[in-house]
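Good morning C.,

I know you're traveling, so I'll keep this short. The sequence:
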Amino acid sequence: MIMSLVESFTTELRRGTLTLAVLSQLRVPQYGYSLVQRLEKAGVTIEQSTLYPLLRRLEKQKLLTSSWDTSESRPRKYYVMNEYGIELYEQLKTEWKTMTVELTTLLEGDEHHESD
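The tokens, ready to paste straight into the viewer:
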């Protein structure tokens, strides 16, 4: 019972942070598979069934631009943040850092109360 709740809450936590993780890698053009590899190298796993809808949503929100590279036998669609996306990403990054400090303070306070 508790493990399924942990998995459920962990999924919720990850869902909220994946957008920030993906945007962090799109200052330079990336195609889907290269993006998956970059994220995995950083310890962030993302399924392609999650990544592509997220990329389409970010593009629909006008945060990314995409273009096809057809110079090789297998065409690839590259995504990159535009100026609006970079501006939003910088604000989200600031929010994330603030939230991280606040939550760390709360969690460390919780640990101090547990040891009292």
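Safe travels,
E.
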